[in-house]
Amino acid sequence: MPDQEVAEVQNARFSIALRGYDRDEVDRYMSRVNQMLAELQITAAPESAIKYALEKVSRDTRSTVEEAQREAEDITRDSRAKAHDRLEEAAKEAEQLREAAEREARKLREAAARETHGTRAAAETRIRELEAEVQAMAEQRDRAVKELEELARSVAELVNAQGRDGSASPEPAKADVAG
């Protein structure tokens, strides 16, 4: 059946008269006829059904990809904010530890100066131990900072990869973070 004839039947309109047919009844009938014609058209032309299905899948896929991109952007934004907060926190902690170690070292040096050589050696040993602890903490902080930067970079790469190919990954990517 030609598409033009189907369209004419589907879009049929009736004039309204004072005495005539019940408009709601005619509308229900036309709706049923339109549904039947659409089904006949689909079964008569499978390529139309395939085209319709492909268009629907395309719309659904596009919608899913857009939603995934929005979620990835939200995750990236949150991850960057958390990474930034953790970096600031680690820097503050390291500074506080350094200051505490310096105070402790100063006290020990002063005590060592007042006491005998043996006590002075113990104080110097304690100072070296504290300095080593501070160094170890600074190294631990630096490793944590690098891990956070790598995590942020991985999230950004994931978002960029989804933006380039326009497809949503069936499984979330797993970031390889050294621990």
Attribute tags:
mainly alpha; 2 domains; 4 helices; 0% strand
Description of the structure:
It is a single chain. This protein is an all-alpha fold and 179 residues long. It folds into 2 domains: 1-63, no CATH class; 70-165. It has helices spanning 3-10, 23-44, 46-114, 117-165. The protein is rod-shaped. The model has no long low-confidence stretch (mean pLDDT 78).
Low-confidence runs of at least 5 consecutive residues: none
% residues in beta strands: under 5%
Radius of gyration from the CA trace? Answer: 37 Å
Give the helix/strand class: mainly alpha
| Share in helix | over 70%
Residue-averaged pLDDT: 78
Query: Which assembly state applies to the chains in this document?
Result: single chain
Distance, first to last CA: 68 Å
Secondary-structure element series: HHHH
Number of helices: 4
Number of E-type strands: 0
Count of structural domains:
2
Shape: rod-shaped
Biggest β-sheet description: none
